[in-house]
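User: I'll paste a sequence; please echo it back and then give the predicted structure.

Assistant: Echoing your sequence first, then the prediction.
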Amino acid sequence: MEFYKTAQGAISGYHEALGAGIADALKTLMETKHLYQKTAVDSSAIRASFLPKVANHIRDEAVQMGHYAIDAAVVGWIPSTNQKEVLGFFSGGANEPKVVFTPPDIKVYCTRECHRLEAFNLVSVFQVVRKDESKKPQQIEELYAFTYRCQSCKSTPDAFVVRRHGGKRELTGRSPMEHVEIPAVIHKDIAKYYSGALLAYQSGQHLPALFMLRTACEQFARKWAAPTARADEAMDRYMASLPEAFKSHFPSLKDIYSQLSADIHGAIGSSELFVQMTEKLVEHFEARRLYKLTEPKAA
């Protein structure tokens, strides 16, 4: 293991490790998290992993020089593409330290032309809102806007908006919206409702998610009814078109619709119900494929 042999070297190395930790958390956020989900930066864990690299005889000196035991959650985070700046902290007003980090390149789904996971490189980063000096440390909020371009198609950049709360970052905006994979068995005519339901659910909007899922059920059933028919009539006509063996062995679309309706009317927004009903809906359409069922031809 390589040891830092000077206090200044130890401080610089720790500062660089904090910046790398922030960049890693940001990369995880944009690559794996959905809208309004978060990642955190754990300064204590970074400090604990870094401490063994510092020679014993200079640890006290490094601490006395300041900024060694700093918590990244209570200082400003400054994005920079200048490698010299990224080596550690720089002091702002009243000699207050701020973490400088390099925004990472990422790998996400290209929704514009490639329609697959691709490497995206940073185009620009703007710190829209900086640390509010008048607030308490635990209330620090900052806002960042990042743009990234697909390295395969080189199309228009994608944008990500990230809000920082203390040691946490939250994905609060994305354009275009993230790609959602839907099961191949879901009928193409209702795919947009199903994907909309998944996006709402992943963003923590469970009641709208249930509504979109119910819309998918209703719009599919309406293929068997007149345009002016009520939803329950359309559902009855659809269920009547199914073989008896199908209805006795597989989830009922009418039952799925009814359970979703009960939750919506009660303004409950059950996440457990959403998971259960999506599983049943997929099973229902898998059974339709198994039975090789077709829908009525459009008039």
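The chain has two domains: 7-175, 188-290. The CA atoms of residues 118 and 183 lie 21 Å apart.
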